[in-house]
Design goal:
The complex is a heterodimer of chains A (about 110) and B (about 500).
Chain A (H helix, E strand, L loop, with lengths): L1 E3 H4 E8 L4 E8 L2 H10 L4 H8 L6 E7 L4 E7 L19 H4 L2 E3 L5
Antiparallel strand pairs in A: 1-6, 2-3, 3-5, 4-5
Chain B lengths: L3 E5 L10 H9 L4 E5 L8 H5 L6 H18 L3 E4 L7 H17 L4 E6 L5 H9 L3 E3 L8 H6 E6 L4 H8 L4 E4 L6 H9 L4 H11 L15 E5 L4 E5 L8 H9 L7 E4 L2 E4 L4 E4 L5 E4 L2 E4 L4 E20 L2 H5 L1 H15 L7 E7 L9 H7 L16 H4 L20 E9 L2 H16 L21 E17 L10 E5 L4
Parallel strand pairs in B: 1-2, 2-3, 3-7, 4-7
Antiparallel strand pairs in B: 1-8, 4-19, 5-18, 6-15, 8-9, 9-13, 10-11, 11-14, 12-13, 15-17, 15-18, 16-17
Helix pairs in contact in B: 3-4, 7-8, 8-9, 12-15
The chains are: A alpha+beta (about 110), B alpha+beta (about 500).
């Protein structure tokens, strides 16, 4: 089955982690969905880099955080916060591409 | 071990709190009140300009409640990252507010003020001794960046605050501080576990944001025991759940398991979150591992120019369809008209285009290589090729066919070495865009709708982060001298 991330998660958010990093949190609706998404390996360095049009090497970390049934992705911020051509100083509105991200996985719902 | 109670009234000093929640917090007889005032989130301007991103009247309102209550209860009030960025002008700004409150309410108490500014000589000599390292992905520090910096601060740990408490300070006003430090200092001073104290501080620094529903302007209380801590909100209708507290641990962090700070690492790999009551979460297993060498994080910014902006919109479908050809043509016209003036940046921020994800905003900005395109200082030689972007936005390729938006918002953004030059570039770009003769134009009286007169706004100085590095220190208190001020009448 194909799912959109926005159907699987309660929270999809982005934020600066310091001025040089941007971090994304995806908090899933249930433990079963969280585990199924991890098992699908849909969210990985390559797919995330492709989604945002950034080099693979700029994906710094992808962490599975069991206590919050969350996947956290941290990337090199495309520009340092507040530099010229900035459009989102806090980095809080960069989550939108993730909402429509497709995950192919076994039915966990 | 008795429980130490830490009251966090609000996520950022000046964000406020309901009095009912505050009074409930004080009824619990806290041992310390702590509040964080700072963040780098609002960008480099506030540290550079020495201005607080929070409002003065709002900060005074919060402190006018907290200070007399802390004095009456005989407990310390600790404020971290004064004025938002925690440099000397911010500290002075907040100190004056505290002095006003002392005078207004006829209060007498000892105020400890702990600046966290680091002078350039210290940083340059530390660089020579290889005691400074970049926090990846920040670039290596250069002498030019240090010399160009407007302010450089270091995030203090708990140690200078503990020293101020040892000297019986009743109110501690700290410059730039590691966010959890103001919450953890009193606990660590009394011998509580450092890992638990710092983790509790990480949660309390955002007050009720870690509750559900979350709020940045409501109180939270933490209870620290020998091998656990508990957190709970103080407003009816909010609760802490294992999910809300664990999720907060993710917030604004790179890796939620390993959290580096002054003097060591907070390790949450064995942390367990347990629902104790309907509204209270108990946490165990958080550990602190001191590092071999104590390091503090430096933050610094430099001025890169001055900005003038103009806001406008267009609803004309003929213009909207061509916007990605029109703005580069306007940039070329500006460049041609002011050919002797090549050290500016002109950007059109266009809102409402149906861009593909990842091709707009900061992700598009990165693809045109604008980073560090605009160095400051006397030797600055701004490249018009990079600073005045001639590359059309990548969104041009990505518009969804047929999905013409009803209206586009356009911000003309000019940055130049002086305000006058920024005004000139913005003004000329605005008038050129207003009357630009694009293909098939029907509305020949003007291309833009302006909501305001004047149409152009002087934004003043523009800063950029240039220092974000770790500096090794011989002693955690080395660069954080404490001044004690006796306010009010003498005893």
């Amino acid at each position: 089955m194909m799912y959109q991330l926005s159907d699987l998660a309660d929270v999809i958010r982005s934020k600066n982690s310091g001025p040089y990093e941007l971090t994304f949190d995806i908090i899933f609706k249930t433990q079963a969905i969280y585990e199924a998404v991890i098992k699908s390996e849909a969210i990985n360095r390559e797919s995330f880099a492709a989604l945002y049009g950034i080099p693979h090497g700029d994906v710094m970390e992808i962490v599975h955080f069991d206590p919050a049934k969350a996947i956290k992705i941290t990337i090199v911020r495309p520009i340092c916060s507040g530099d010229l051509r900035e459009t989102d100083v806090y980095g809080a509105q960069q989550h939108v591409p993730l909402m429509a991200f497709s995950v192919k996985m076994e039915d966990a719902c | 071990m008795r429980e130490l109670k830490i009251l966090s009234p609000t996520a950022i000093l000046g964000y406020g709190f309901p009095m009912a929640s505050w009074e409930e917090g004080m009824r619990r007889k806290p041992d310390v009140i702590a509040v964080d005032a700072g963040s780098t989130d609002p960008g480099p301007y506030y540290l550079g300009a020495g201005i607080s991103f929070t409002d003065r009247a709002a900060v005074k309102r919060d402190l006018a409640v907290m200070i007399p209550a802390a004095l009456e209860a005989g407990i310390p009030l600790i404020i971290g990252s004064a004025g938002g960025s925690g440099a000397l002008p911010h500290l002075q700004w907040n100190r004056e507010i505290i002095e006003e409150i002392a005078a207004d309410q006829n209060l007498s108490f000892t105020l400890a003020v702990i600046p966290g500014d680091i002078d350039k000589k210290t940083i340059l000599s530390s660089m020579e001794e290889e005691r400074i390292s970049p926090l990846h992905p920040a670039p290596e520090l250069t002498q030019a960046d240090v010399n160009a910096a407007a302010h450089i601060v270091a995030q203090m740990g708990v140690e200078p605050i503990i020293r101020a408490l040892d000297e019986n300070a009743q109110v501690v006003l700290a410059g730039r501080a590691y966010d959890p430090a103001v919450f953890a200092a009193a606990a660590i001073r009394e011998g509580y576990d450092r890992g638990l104290a710092v983790h509790l501080g990480k949660i309390l620094e955002c007050a009720a944001i870690a509750a559900t529903p979350g709020s940045g302007s409501d109180c939270m209380i933490g209870y620290l025991g020998g091998d656990y801590f508990r957190v709970e909100p103080l407003s009816a209708g909010r609760k802490c759940t294992t999910l809300s507290v664990a999720a907060h641990t993710l917030y604004e962090k790179t890796n939620p398991y390993i959290l580096p700070g002054p003097g060591g690492i907070l390790d949450l790999r064995e942390t367990v979150f347990t629902q104790e009551t309907d509204i209270c979460v108990r946490v165990t297993g958080s550990r602190f591992f001191p590092s071999d060498v104590y390091s503090v994080k430096l933050e610094g910014v430099k001025k890169v120019g001055c900005r003038t902006i103009s806001f406008a919109s267009t609803a004309d479908p003929v213009m909207i369809a061509q916007i990605d050809e029109i703005t580069p043509a306007v940039k070329a016209r500006v460049r041609d008209n002011f050919s002797g003036m090549d050290d500016y940046s002109l950007d059109f921020k266009i809102y409402g285009k149906p861009d593909k994800p990842g091709t707009s905003g900061i992700f598009a900005a990165s693809s045109v290589g604008i980073i560090n395109a605009f160095p400051a200082g006397a030797d600055s030689n701004l490249s018009p090729e990079s600073a005045d972007c001639a590359v059309p936005p990548t969104g041009a390729d990505c518009a969804v066919p047929g999905a013409t938006p009803a209206e586009l918002a356009i911000i003309i953004d000019a940055v130049a070495p002086t305000q006058e030059m920024a005004n000139t570039i913005c003004s000329f770009a605005r008038s050129t865009l207003l009357h630009y003769g694009y293909l098939g134009r029907i509305s020949t009286a003007g291309n833009l709708a302006f909501p305001f007169s004047p149409s152009d706004v002087k934004m003043g100085d523009v800063y950029a982060f240039c220092v974000y590095h770790l500096m090794e220190v011989a002693n955690p208190c080395e660069f954080f001298p404490i001044e004690y001020i006796r306010l009010g009448c003498c005893i």
